[in-house]
Amino acid sequence: MLKDLITSIRTTAVLWILTAALYPLLIFAIGQLAFPTQANGSLLINDQGQVIGSTLIGQAFSSEEYFLSRPSAVNYSIGEDAAPTGLSGATNLAPSNPDLIALVEERAEILQAADIEPTADLVYSSGSGLDPHISPASALAQVDRIAAARNLSPDDLQTLIAANTEGRFLGILGEPAVNTVTLNLALDQLGNT
Amino acid sequence: MTQGFFQLAIALAILLAVAPFLGKYMARVFMGQRTILDPVAGPLERLLFATGGFSNQRAMRGGQYVRAILVSNLVMGILVFAIFMLQGVLPLDPTNLNAPDWDLALHTAISFVTNTNQQHYSGETTYSYFSQVGALGFLMFTSAATGIAVAIAFIRGLTGNSLGNFYVDLTLSITRILLPISVVGAIALLIAGVPETFAGPAVAQTLEGATQYIARGPVAHFEIIKELGENGGGFFGINSAHPYENPNNFTNLLETIIMLVIPAGLILTYGIMAGKPRQGQLIFGMVFIFYAALIAIAAVGEFQGNPLVNSILGEQAPNLEGKEVRFGWALTALWAVSTTGTMCGAVNGMHDSLMPPGGFATLSDMFLQIVWGGQGTGTAYLFVFLILTVFLTGLMVGRTPEFFSRKIEKREIVLASIILLAHPIAILIPGAITLAFPEILAGISNSGFHGISQVIYEYASAAANNGSGFEGLGDDTLWWNLSTSFSLIVGRYVPIIALVYLADSMTHKQPVPETAGTLHTDTFLFTGVTAGTIVILGALTFLPVLVLGPIAEGFAIAQAALGLN
Known about the structure:
The complex is a heterodimer of chains A (193) and B (565).
Chain A: H1 2-34, H2 36-39, E1 43-45, E2 51-54, H3 98-113, H4 120-123, E3 133-134, H5 136-141, H6 143-150, H7 154-163, E4 165-166, E5 177-179, H8 180-192
Antiparallel strand pairs in A: 1-2, 3-5, 4-5
Chain B: H1 2-30, H2 38-52, H3 62-85, H4 102-113, H5 123-126, H6 129-158, H7 166-192, E1 202-205, E2 211-214, H8 220-228, H9 249-273, H10 277-304, H11 307-313, H12 328-341, H13 356-368, H14 377-397, E3 402-403, E4 406-407, H15 410-436, H16 438-442, H17 449-463, H18 478-507, H19 524-564
Antiparallel strand pairs in B: 1-2, 3-4
Helix pairs in contact in B: 1-9, 1-12, 2-7, 3-4, 3-6, 3-18, 4-18, 6-7, 6-18, 7-8, 8-9, 9-10, 9-12, 10-12, 10-13, 12-13, 13-17, 13-19, 14-15, 14-19, 15-17, 15-18, 17-18, 17-19
């Protein structure tokens, strides 16, 4: 028994050094040296050097000058509730839960009031609460509204949407997805030039 | 719909192409044959064996093997618990997180040491980088390696060889399988966008001028072993739905395949090590059929969507509640069935929000425990089912049952029964107690039939060492932390101990010569009978809760939808 204990402690120590120290440090070094952008979270930084988000992390959009993103259970980790650690989370509402149906009805009404045809991804909330994407159909449904608010032609907007759409992997796997963060950023930059 | 099912077919085809390679490779590793990694791994292993104090590589008997597992797991568990309780004074804690409550720390330590990774917390708000890397990330390797070591000892025993040395197999599993694949996979994830930083959360001014707190961390190295080792404990609360854990469909494919390859490959490894590759292939085929059927059930449910919502939208749309747009219904259903089948437990969409067929498929996965099954243990359970089927068919024709030319007698059947009975005991008894006091104990967030599913899912996840959850459940309470700890321990160590003793007793049997009357287990007929045994045993035990949970919920939704039309 004592012999087992000693062997176990020694094994734990050496395996800890290998898997909990050397291995993470190796990946950390490779990340920071060779792929610093990805390793630090694919952050978006404006001309003043300020972090304005991440290409991978969604943001809440309520203004009619921006494409709306999906409903989020954690409001996209925005505001004092999320400080200082940041949040992620879902509603975890079951399909049979009346609260889910009530929320969907409410969101559909808000969309209709804004002249946007409700689509599935805009009435269902995401899993992570940070989903940066909407479906191409949801983006197209918002084109007229943005075009009016920004005085842009719908054709230009459709080009922008296409430029900010990530296709299926290898053309097969997953669903086409429009990145609302980069799309809305591109809208702002369009105004600046 | 066709496109979605085409995606599923492609993913399954990739699995079928990759699993045999790893299966053969793992067999070479544990049979001591030459492999491509010898020049690097050989010297490293000699160093680890020497510093660990087991250079002699002495083969262990059953009792010694069990003691080595229990003592080593206890030492690792205590180390990890201590790290949690001291995280406030340890380094790498940029958001100044203090020690969690003792019951949560205890549950987390047990959950990770048992290869379950059930999480009653959110990573970003509870555990420091030091705890995640030094405690959770460490156990992700050792708990997975423990499972593989037991699986290898089991097949050695079944085929009449000595069990081997636990510490040697534990180390080899890491140096030859888990670590090399993790290094390559982590770099691939990094390139694809998964972060690896020790810097604290980024604070951003969003386009609309609000302040966003973006949790980051050393994710890439953690993410890959999370999938590869069937661990499943997310770095972030929302696991692989989080864009930093799983940013795109390349990472999603990689993570899906990686979580399947070891349990799938190990079935073929068993065939090779037993000198009966056909046995491995037939069992592999049987499991594949179970797996594909459950995927189809879950995928169709998600594709058809929620009729109550569809009536608001005015069209049929997939259920996207708790899902990410980039993955869609098909790959979320694939992941859900894969993660519960392999006992990984990572999620890329919320299982609580799956349609009832998805709840049915994920619960069935965890009840059966062999739709690939846990790291190492799943394959061992499959062979326990083979032994049981040999026994049943032997009874029917009145012959002494034999498996791999060794007689199956009372002791073996008792041990096999213990392995199969520990599971329902660890689920149904605490489940019944919790459901008896719904107000005080249960913490159900979705009432009605779904609430029953929430409670049963939590215990099934603990007992099967899966770790996923119907996460709406309010589970960070003293009751849940302690009662699931019971299920975690019973679900892990009772079967493992029984497996080792079962292997040990087979080792010491005299082989019986094969005759014309010998029942061959590597035939289509026998595999079919085994599949029947698995389904009947599973159904007899768990059908009542499936009826009360997802099946009843499905009817309730259908009825409500009829009322609308």
